[in-house]
């Protein structure tokens, strides 16, 4: 009897254990479903938040940045300029006579024109440039690490690309563009006002043109350096130092820069432009060496400081060429350094500090 009782009790225990195990399995399944539902709900919340953030920063029609996001980015770039001294410029763009498009063809065609223009501008821009819709048919492009010269080149490229594009239904449309570089310690409102004033000047001058806000000696020099009709750097007699070797070398550097600019604008492959870059950097080394020998021979007091500036430019050029060769830097960004930092800022600013000394020594010799 005891044996039978033990077997019965064991079977009852096993039955209860099986039932409990089944109950736990059901609970585990329900818990898994709850966890999956919670994860799905969380994913939906994350997606909804991302969608809201996107809508808060982007224009609903064109998909590019909206006015609020442009202002935020501009403030960030201005802080970067204040901390590191990197230039930043703005393009203020208006589609000429856009109201006629809406009145003649309807707002749907007008919307298509706005979206097509964004595609045109984006294809002209560098990867670091930022495009936003300011409102209506007005757009803003922020250009980090870019002075007035580089910004004006991009503006002209966009103007020409828009002019030659045949918009479906609407046909040919032009744009007017105002360009302004942010000044030291300038408020956002003041910078925006200058770019807006340049845009207004472009429209008043007949539209379909680029006007740069060139106030101040450095900005004026950069504006004069450009021939926007042919998208090239222009050598002028006012850039001459009076020393034949240095002036010849400066002109040669302009020619190299223009050849590189042509490659930038035509988007030539890296293996084709790398020899151009190496030749330009080699010429810079020769020029800096000869220039240092000249201003030491005439007793220029800023010789040591100027030589240090040369070394800094050469070191930076070597770094950027290496990064470009590795595929981590766009050709346009490299050209921006060579054209802006070396040609515009150095040759048209720093080098001029000793031009008067050359003239004085020559006059004394006479």
TrEMBL record:
Residues 17-58 form a coiled coil. CDD domains: GGDEF, Hemerythrin. Residues 1-19 form the PAC domain. One of its GO terms (cellular component) is plasma membrane. SMART domains: GGDEF. Signal peptide: none annotated. InterPro entries: Diguanylate_Cyclase, GGDEF_dom, Haemerythrin_Fe_BS, Hemerythrin-like, Hemerythrin-like_sf, Hemerythrin_metal-bd, Nucleotide_cyclase, PAS-assoc_C. Keywords: Coiled coil, Iron, Metal-binding. It is an enzyme of class 2 (transferase). The keyword Metal-binding applies. GO terms for molecular function: diguanylate cyclase activity; metal ion binding. The keyword Repeat does not apply. Its EC number is 2.7.7.65. It comes from the Bacteria. GO terms for biological process: cell adhesion involved in single-species biofilm formation; negative regulation of bacterial-type flagellum-dependent cell motility. Residues 86-215 form the GGDEF domain. It catalyses: 2 GTP = 3',3'-c-di-GMP + 2 diphosphate. PROSITE patterns: GGDEF, HEMERYTHRINS, PAC. Belongs to the hemerythrin family. PANTHER family: DIGUANYLATE CYCLASE DGCM-RELATED, REGULATORY COMPONENTS OF SENSORY TRANSDUCTION SYSTEM. This is diguanylate cyclase.
